[in-house]
Amino acid sequence: MDARWTVMGWRLTVILADVKFAPEYVACVLNQHFEDAKALFLVPLMAIHRAHLVMLAACGIISREDARAIRTALAAVDPAAIRAAAYDGSCEDLFFYLDRLIDATGGTGAAGRLHTARSRNDIDMTMYRMRQREWLLELMEASFELRQVLLGLAERHRETIFAAHTHTQRAQPTTIAHYLLAVVEQLERDATRFEAAYASTNRSPLGACAITGTGFPIDRTLTADLLGFDGPTGNTYGSIATADYLLESMSAAAVAVTGLGRFAQDLLLWSTAEVGYVRLGDAFVQTSSIMPQKRNPVAIEHARAIASRAIGQMSAVMLAIHNTPFGDIVDTEDDLQPVVQAAFADAARVVRLLAAAMGSAEFDAARLGARANGGWTTITELADTLVRDKGLPFRLAHAIARRVTEHAEPDSPEAAAAALADASRELAGEEITYTPNALSDLLSARRFIEVRTTVGGPAPSETARAMASSRGGLAEDRARVAARRAALHTAEERLHARLAEL
């Protein structure tokens, strides 16, 4: 016999013989959790079942006969059928749903024997870490794609001059390569943060049980190894209670997405007709339904919007955990994990979209160069030259250079030479003169950039060195992530081999 209710638009069937939950609770909570768990955690849950089974048999906690029966029951589980199953309210969650299937094949009590020396608490925390490490690797790989694209652009634009802005105003000449390398270095630091977050995440809580561990002689190192972890977590209380590994990953992702949002903002400004520095390929723009002339860089707008959504989700994770008890609590579990998944997914979308769009980007070198030479953007070099060549204190040289900007136009070297002579005579007590041609050369954007060979500076010789270093760093980061993926694959093979040996 069953009972049927329509709650919040869902038609639900709850088996009366086993009913424990109100239909409203089923509709508002349990149904959604079941669907989320099928989508996100079925694969890691089955891997945990298998690894725990191998460990129980290896430690002599269950008999070889029981282990083989449970192995057969696990092999009979059909993931496709489970994903197609509708929640009927007859069990609390996916874990108990699987228990019922295991008992049906392995014999009554099979699931109970498998559950020796563990809890849903440590199972859940292990599942979350297993999925989170996958999401971290996917985000890292997406960031590598973007780094590669930006390095390719930087290589093509080592000599492309443009005016860097400070406080939204033209400041000094630099190159597109110099700008893009700044974004690349930010992504490199993101990779360092992701790697640290992965290391914190990739520890196995399995064996912590409810929160105090177990009196059974389990081998936590074995289950950690079979599931691809670097090792078990430490304190069993903290293994269940802690969420800092999650917050660390969210923080690293938030820093990355925030930085790329600022990059996207620049790209949108540079794509305007008024600025016209960069043009995206046709595949990344849309036109207007009414204005045929429009060429809207909507791919970058979408990147910015998705980035904002990701930041919102990451903030929601922080807020959900903030001020919760330091222990086993649902706030970090079923309701939160889909938000974590969505945050990582959106972060990866942003990075991949920017990589693809920037792969089509074309910079207008002529326009960039023309803007870079105007508005006294190189006047700092006059002050620096007065210090180097004439021995003036920088503050005095700065005052003289400022006076030149007040009494001459940047496109008139004759007027600038006259203003320099007047200003130096009045402020320094000696007349400093340059011919208009010499002063024009001194104040050229090209010279301004070429003399700035400081480590990290815009001189083409220095950006070439930086690019080579960044390419080396990218290769190392790719190798590190490839090794991580290989370790997970090898662990999966070890698990299957140990299962076969039962």
Based on secondary structure, the structural category is: mainly alpha
- H/E element order: EEHHHHHHHEEHHHHEHHEHHHHHHH
CATH homology-level superfamily of the largest domain: Fumarase/aspartase (Central domain)
Integer count of domains: 3
Describe the structure.
The structure is a single chain. The protein folds into 3 domains: 2-40 and 62-115, no CATH class; 121-371 and 465-501, Fumarase/aspartase (Central domain) (Fumarase C, Chain A, domain 2, Up-down Bundle), CATH 1.20.200.10; 379-443. The relative contact order is 0.11. The strands form 3 sheets. It has a two-stranded antiparallel sheet. A two-stranded antiparallel ribbon has the order 3-4. A two-stranded antiparallel ribbon has the order 5-6. The chain contains 20 helices and 6 strands. Residues 1-17 have low confidence and may be disordered. A hairpin with a 2-residue loop joins strand 1 and strand 2 (10-15). By secondary structure, it is mostly helical. Helices cover 65% and strands 6% of the residues.
Summarize it:
The protein is mainly alpha-helical.
Features:
single chain; 502 residues; mainly alpha; Fumarase C, Chain A, domain 2; 3 domains; two-stranded antiparallel sheet; 20 helices; 65% helix; elongated
